Amino acid sequence: MKNLWTDEESSNYKTDLELRVYTSKLLGRSDELVLHGGGNTSVKSTVDGQDILYVKGSGWDLVSIEKEGFAPVELTMLQDMAKVEELSDSEMVVAQREAMIDKTAPNPSVEAILHAIIPFKFVDHTHADAVVTISNSFNGIENIKEVYPNFLIVPYVMPGFILAHTIYEMVQGLDWESCEGIILHNHGIFTFDDDAKKSYDKMIEAVSKAEQFLEKNAPLVIEKYMPRGTLDIDKLQQIISSEKGYEVFVKVNQSPLALHYASTRNLKTFATRGVLTPEHIIRTKREPLILEEDDIQGAINRYKENYIEYFNTHKKDEIMLNPAPNWVVVKNFGTVSFGKNEKEASIIEDINNHTMNAVLKADMLGGYESISLQDSFDMEYWELEQAKLKK
């Protein structure tokens, strides 16, 4: 992975927060690290004698973030939150806003508490493809430990307060100076340092190790397929628009990767094994529609039936999202992504491209394995997202 730091560019940034903006943008420039709002960063600083955590605010992308995109939160209040036994995510959001010293700033990241308990000035968190590809394989834990012997390895835990509290308990008595970073299984990676450049450098070096592991153990070669399948795109768009209740924009992908993926045997099993990293499920659902026949409506009906069964199996008091698919893998044809507009469809396509590449590589490590159905449901129907629907 290329290190994008330059002394010339960095010389324009002087303060703690300015340097935090700079290295956040560097992380955001690499799609292999973060996609469309993914990842978060922070810096600990002092304002009027008070210890403050500036943490990425909700709704901002790292690639374009500015100083205004960071939420200033009282550090000790966040650290105290990590110690309580129970805290719902909605309660956490309220408590974090109350701890902000600037109420006009965006809501702090749901990982703010975790950033606060890491005792270093700069903290970087990404969902690096290479790291998650390794951890999303059948032997993921063993391989991750091999690549990162000096990292704290955390089994998958729901993001937000539960994750922060879990790590708080894990690090009691930890020698932080000997800890090179944190791997969140099936989720991502943290690096940290008291120097902005060193924290960024550590991220690039760590992800490069994962990339080198994959180059050696999963040297993916994309076969060159010609599209042999057919698809009535207008009919698909019409049916999906009807199912969604609005006219969808479609993005057709017949790249070598998409054709390779869509030409795989046992497609219904192969291409429905879950998301690459948990936050993607909000965009893509857990799995795509698999289309191997001309009966588009029939295939969508079966997809919806399966989705409703999945919802009913795991629901408590949640409101069901629209059960229609957000993307489709068409046998021997490629993939199609749907969105309310071109931007949304493009975002879903981007996520799918990274997921397909990871699935193919993870299979070369023994098999791809995402988070469980229950964990998928919990993420898709996260309390914070449901709150928006219930309003």
At a glance:
This protein has 391 residues and is of the alpha+beta class.
Which descriptors would you attach to this protein?
about 400 residues, alpha+beta, L-fuculose-1-phosphate Aldolase, seven-stranded mixed β-sheet, four-stranded mixed β-sheet, 17 helices, globular
What does this structure look like?
The protein is of the alpha+beta class and 391 residues long. The protein has 2 domains: 7-217, 3-Layer(aba) Sandwich (L-fuculose-1-phosphate Aldolase); 233-390, Class II aldolase/adducin N-terminal domain (L-fuculose-1-phosphate Aldolase, 3-Layer(aba) Sandwich). It has 17 helices and 11 strands. It is globular.
Alpha-carbon distance between the termini?
Answer: 43 Å
- CATH classification class of the largest domain: Alpha Beta
Beta-strand percent range: 5-15%
Characterize the biggest β-sheet: 7 strands, mixed
As a percent range, the share of helical residues equals 40-55%
What oligomeric state is this?
single chain
Summarize the helices and strands and which ones pair or pack.
Blueprint: H1 7-10, H2 16-28, E1 40-47, E2 50-56, E3 70-74, H3 75-81, H4 89-98, H5 112-117, E4 122-126, H6 129-135, H7 140-147, E5 152-154, H8 161-170, E6 182-184, E7 188-193, H9 196-217, H10 233-244, E8 249-253, H11 256-262, H12 267-270, H13 281-284, E9 289-291, H14 296-314, E10 327-330, E11 334-339, H15 342-364, H16 373-380, H17 383-390
Parallel strand pairs: 5-6, 9-10
Antiparallel strand pairs: 1-2, 1-4, 2-3, 4-7, 6-7, 8-11, 10-11
